[in-house]
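FAQ: What does a ligand-bound record look like?

Like this one, built around pyridoxal-5'-phosphate:
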Amino acid sequence: MTDAYASLEASVLANEVSQLQQDYDLVASNKMSLDLSRGKPAADQLDLSNGLEDAIGGNFLSENGTDVRNYGGLRGLPEARALGAEIMGVPADNVMAGGNSSLTLMHFVVTTALQHGLWGDHRAWNRSKVKLLTPVPGYDRHFVLSEALGIEMVNIDITETGPDMDQARALVAADPQIKGIWCVPKYSNPTGCTYSDQVVDEIAQLPDAAAADDFIVLWDNAYAVHDLVFPGDTLASLLDAADRAQTADHMVQFGSTSKITFAGGGIAFIASSERVLNALEEHMSYQMIGPDKVNQLRHARFLKGRVGQQMQNHAQLIRPKFEIVLSILEEELGALDIATWTNPRGGYFISLDLLPGLATQVIDMAKEVGLTLTPAGATFPHGNDPQDRNVRIAPTFATLDELKAAMRILTLCVKLASAKKLAA
Ligand code: PLP
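The answer part, i.e. the structure of the complex:
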């Protein structure tokens, strides 16, 4: 079938439905166990960082003579802060290096903003109801984190160049309860877009446009160096833009080595102004005496001068996986006019949009025959995709053979559900 489904005669479309149904029944009779839901590195990617094991080599002293086995140093080791600075493209003085998860640091920043404020003054958010802008589709864990803290989410659209800034400006100007915005500025999860220079500038200016005087930008730069092609996308510096707009105290950036070294065994970073880092350090001192500096040191030594090489090694392993997903999407769906998808230059995901109303059905149909996908709606707050059309594909964890099989099943389900819908 090579014509757009919507252009087919009713009888031709009915034939197509029955052929696809037979194909689906055949797949169902030979149930498989496949999974495209996990945005996790595969074991061969993790192997790229086994050298971490040897990076300490009995020498536990950091560059400044700190014995990393002992307590202390809430801002992190200087060489770990320098690593965060390199990854995030900010000066090391602006960086705090922490534990193994940037998501934990995001939770920490939001709770600090709620309970204490980020500026050492009276401006704590919990004086009133709190809302955050959520560009959608977006990263499910930002939504779950916000929901868990009782924060209301206000959706705005995400375009190929970043969040729709007209929507963002109008909303923040009109509502003082909107206290911030979640951003994944490079190779965004799940659409893969990188914010344009203009959008970065406009986001840096957002605190000025906001009715709230305690507005913050939560800049989750999780995929800062995660290029699939070289050279990858260039993201403008948020800090430079904020310096120009004089809003640096309202920018909080996050990064981590989770998908550079060991997911779950890496280090995470916050970057912000000195004033905000001071407030965060004070609040952090209530909950710990210091981060795991042994892990910080081995990361700093292992990655020193070779972040670029490490990321090229990752790309070599995962680029073929993205290529398989994209080629099967094109081959199976390209002519049918029933779906669109992203072709990201980096990051971990491909975002697939179906005909409205079909995402839940397609994901259920796939599950039925043994293919697990990210749950429908996961890329929207409260799991509610208003058009029920977005499917997030995570190609990294599966093997190439598993990916091929999984994509044949997914595209079969998309075709069958779409043909049935159009035939109805
Ligand atoms: N931020 C984004 C946008 C992600 O996609 C992920 C993981 O998928 C994370 C943060 C998690 O980062 P970490 O492992 O540092 O907590």
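Follow-up question: can I read anything off the structure? Yes, for example: The mean pLDDT is 97.
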